[in-house]
């Protein structure tokens, strides 16, 4: 594949699926600088993966898998780098959209960012409309376990929402 064709595909994929990148990066990178770094790294990884795309899965699934896997690796690397240097932040900063600031959405992203890495991934995949079997295939767990974990997450988030929003948040 020549560079021109690869560039066309890359730009098309970014334009059509930027929401996937935005959501995953927002959950796994806490500061704006980290989000920019992670976006650059994911973009490079996505660019490099184009020639190996065989169309055995949907493009969105392919991009999700690349972005999610890279975000998990990046997050692990960042945790190792910051261990012993800084105390963990109490609350992760969420990416603010210029036109649309929604406190409830910010709260939800904040709560999701506090979940463990598998639970974060499950939430994002569910929000994007993936079926349990698709999620199981992407994450590498059974479909039944996806259901169990998502029910527990929903229950936890519902309880947190009741406590926080009843207290005027």
Please identify which CATH superfamily of the largest domain we are dealing with. RNA polymerase sigma factor, region 2, helix turn helix motif
Overall domain count: 2
Give the strand tally: 0
CATH architectural label of the largest domain: Orthogonal Bundle
Beta-strand content estimate: under 5%
What's the total helix number?
7
Please bin the fraction of helical residues. Answer: over 70%
What does this structure look like?
The protein is an all-alpha fold. It has seven helices and no strands. The N and C termini lie far apart (52 Å). Mean pLDDT is 82; it is low at 84-99.
Task: Describe the secondary structure blueprint for this structure.
Blueprint (H helix, E strand, L loop, with lengths): L2 H26 L3 H18 L9 H24 L20 H11 L3 H11 L4 H8 L3 H24 L3
Helix pairs in contact: 1-2, 1-3, 1-5, 2-3, 5-7, 6-7
State the main characteristics.
169 residues; mainly alpha; Arc Repressor Mutant, subunit A; 7 helices
Summarize the structure.
This protein is mainly α and 169 residues long. The protein contains 7 helices and no strands. It starts with a helix and ends with a helix.
